[in-house]
Write a structure and sequence with these properties.
six-stranded parallel β-sheet, 42% helix
Length: 316
């Protein structure tokens, strides 16, 4: 049975991944590391927790040793738009936390999952069906840390045999956690406005296509890659994973099937638009499908139905 430490367990992915991992591996075998004040309020009652500043290697070391951890999910990062406003913070959190997790994993023989992103690509990358192996010249500090993270993780695997694995997440849409400063956050916010009966102001222009993924598929990808047969993996850091690609008009029109009077207007955020324009329209994830049987379950229509159902019942 795995003993898992989640670094960054209170973020967008971590807050939901922790629940899924505890369902699979048992509550006591998943330790939630947190830095910011935890959410929900009963966070400490749900299972083992440990306060960790991932940029401090001693704190990571003590958590892994104390809880006899064999797998680290390193989710510490500053998201794209926020990192552009504070580049040094984006670099320090993204890179130092990864280096610390890798060094500790090398000593304790742990596996390490660190998410990469479509942000690892840049404007020179092929825009449509972006290949697994292609040019990566990102124009954001967030993207730069993701490319460095992929290379560093491969280095630790090739040099010291650390079992590093990763996927390149597209924009993630969640019905549980609120947006946290990412370029793709509009695809979450639009649902909240629709359910509340409010007009939505979109920060990226019509025709801006980006790969997106519903959180249940993202969680499956993070778990399945760590369970994959290592002998089949020709790639490790990092696999393209894809589910759906759409622009604001497409998601707006899908939501209007459920809320015919829903209104969307545009007020383009130059920073978010610049970042979005540097990213691919869609990813080719055939390597993930071939090497560890990746298969998403949600498309835009199915996700929209589920998002609206969940948010409506919650009475946001």
């Amino acid at each position: 049975m795995k003993r898992i430490l989640i670094v960054g367990s209170t973020g967008q992915i971590g807050s939901e991944l922790s629940v899924r991992l505890r369902e699979i591996y048992g509550t006591d075998n998943v330790i939630c590391g947190y830095f910011k004040p935890p959410y929900p309020e009963n966070f400490f009652e749900l299972g083992p927790t440990v306060e960790i500043d991932a940029t401090d290697v001693k704190q990571v070391y003590h958590a892994v040793r104390e809880y006899n951890v064999d797998t680290i999910y390193n989710l510490a990062a500053i998201l794209s738009a926020t990192a552009e406003k504070c580049p040094k913070l984006g670099w320090d959190v993204g890179m130092q936390s990864l280096m610390n997790c890798l060094d500790v994993a090398k000593e304790f023989n742990c596996g390490v999952f660190t998410p990469s992103s479509i942000g690892a690509f840049g404007p020179e990358t092929p825009k449509d069906k972006t290949p697994q192996d292609t040019i990566q010249r990102p124009k954001t500090i967030y993207g730069i840390t993701k490319v460095m993270g992929e290379l560093l993780s491969d280095y630790y695997f090739e040099r010291w045999g650390v079992d590093t694995r990763s996927v390149r997440f597209p924009g993630i849409i969640s019905n549980m956690t609120l947006p946290g400063g990412g370029t793709t956050d509009y695809a979450v916010e639009i649902f909240y406005n629709a359910v509340k009966g409010e007009k939505f102001t979109c920060p990226v222009k019509a025709g801006t296509f980006m790969d997106m993924m519903y959180m249940p598929d993202a969680l499956n990808a993070a778990i399945e890659i760590m369970e994959a047969d290592a002998s089949r993996l020709k790639h490790r850091n990092s696999f393209n994973v894809a589910s759906m690609s759409f622009d604001p008009e497409m998601i707006y029109n899908e939501i209007k099937k459920h809320y015919p009077n829903f209104v969307m207007e545009y007020n383009v955020d130059p920073l978010k638009q610049r970042i979005a324009d540097s990213w691919p329209n869609s990813l080719d994830d055939s390597c993930a499908r071939n090497e560890w049987d990746w298969q998403p379950k949600y498309d835009l229509s199915k996700m929209t139905v589920d998002m609206i159902d969940v948010l409506s019942k919650r009475k946001i």
